[in-house]
Amino acid sequence: MNFYVVDAFANDPFKGNPAGVVILKEDIPKSIKQLIASEVKFSETAFIKKISENYFKIEYFTPVSEIDLCGHATIATFYVLKEKNLVFPNNKYNLHTNVGKLTILIENDLVLMEQAKPELGKVYDKETIAEILGINSEELDERFKLQASYTGLWDLLIPIKKKETLLKLEPNLEKIKEFTKENNIVSFHLFTLDEKEALANTRDFAPLYGINEEAATGTANGALLYYLYKNNLIDEKKVYKIIQGESMNRKSEIFGKIENEKVFIGGKAKIIIEGNLKV
Question: What GO molecular-function term can you cite, just one (predicted)?
Answer without folding.
Answer: isomerase activity
